[in-house]
Amino acid sequence: MNTDKQTLTPSQLTETALPIMGINMHVIALHKLSYMIIIAMLVTLIFSSGALVIWVEKLPFHPVTETLLETVQWWHGLMEQNGLTIVFDKLREAFRFFQSYNSYESYSLIMDSVDR
Q: Cα(75)–Cα(79) distance, rounded to whole angstroms?
């Protein structure tokens, strides 16, 4: 990067600190991360609305919090009515089932089901 002059070209402004990343790679990585965060939020909002209700219930009392709690409870009821909370409940149940075994027993269960 040439910094002898006070003015920098646009290509010099977009160079990253790590030359192995290439030009504008940090911007691309940030865009990918933002998409992953949005997808994770949507999945959580749809399949784990119960956790959202619990989190809002723990917020300090405020008129905005009351409105937010009503909205979240309505959303959770809608998700339960459509059966979308069952997916998260079944995944949690399966995770806790495997968590109750030690790692060797869990591995044996998985391998036995694969062999069949």
A: 6
